[in-house]
Amino acid sequence: MSEQDSEPVLDVDFFRRWLTTAAASMEREADHLTQLDSAIGDADHGSNLQRGFRAVTGALEKEPPATPGATLVLAGRQLISTVGGASGPLYGTLLRRTGKALGDSAEVTPAQLAEALGAGVAAVAQLGGAKAGDKTMIDALEPAVAALATSFAAASAAAEEGAVATVPLQARKGRASYLGERSIGHQDPGATSSALLIAALAATAGE
Ligand code: ADP
Ligand code: MG
After folding, report:
1. InterPro entries given for it (predicted)?
2. 20 to 30 Å CA-CA from 198: which of 13, 40, 147, 152?
3. From the CB of 134, is ligand 1 less than 6 Å away?
């Protein structure tokens, strides 16, 4: 904690706790996420993320990284290698790119994290080709990044709102898009898990 500055600084322990909290959320919500994916996908989103985040917590215990950036890069790498499907590379890219944007700093400010997460979300949009309104994880992540300028709690609320707002949308990317109009009326699983990831961030920050 800097003495001159009242803004909190986020250290490697904060990032480790964020990911551990997210992993616990994925365990708790796995059945729900899989249920959402059974309506408009192939019923594996919960088990995909459960497997991926177990690998993340395992890797963080086995070889604890020294910096926030390295923590996210390691987590992203684990998700890419264990999750598969569409969401593995997308979530992996999100965390890896965010981690790379944080560089080698031992501590980062919330403003630096907001900027880095913005780069991570942009990389997800580029990889998956999804825009806001396509009924994907982008619909939770983009509003969350915008609201991070206000607070972690605002980001969490914006992500949750974005996830709920996918219900009336028709999917234009991913497996759900194969359903055409039949994808309308269901909440997107990836937007829902993204809201869990941002809620875990707010919880870690004590908001
Ligand atoms: P799969 O679709 O391969 O079974 P998952 O079920 O784990 O993978 O994840 C599905 C979620 O991935 C969707 O709910 C959506 O949010 C997200 N997704 C799929 N394709 C894209 C894409 N092109 N861009 C962004 N997100 C996507
Ligand atoms: Mg699926």
Report:
1. DhaK_L_YcgS, DhaL_dom, DhaL_dom_sf, Dihydroxyacetone_Kinase
2. 40
3. no
Q: Which atom of ligand 1 is nearest to the CA of 189?
A: 14
Compute the distance from residue 189 Cα to the ligand 2 centre, in Å. 8
Q: Residue 175: CB within 6 Å of ligand 1?
A: yes
Say how far apart CA 84 and CA 74 lie, in whole Å: 16
Instruction: Quote the longest CA-to-CA distance of the chain.
Output: 56
pLDDT digits (tens, 9 = 90+) for 56-83: 999 999 999 999 999 999 999 999 999 9
By the 8 A CB rule, do 92 and 76 touch? yes
Domains with residue ranges and CATH for the chain: 10-205 (1.25.40.340)
* pLDDT interval class at 121 (50, 70, 90): very high
Q: Is 45 in the pocket of ligand 1 (CB under 6 A)?
A: yes
Query: What are the pLDDT digits (tens) for 6-43?
Result: 678 999 999 999 999 999 999 999 999 999 999 999 99
Q: Are 84 and 55 in contact (CB under 8 A)?
A: no
* Banded pLDDT at 135 (limits 50, 70, 90): very high
* Ligand 1 lined by 48 (C-beta under 6 Å): yes
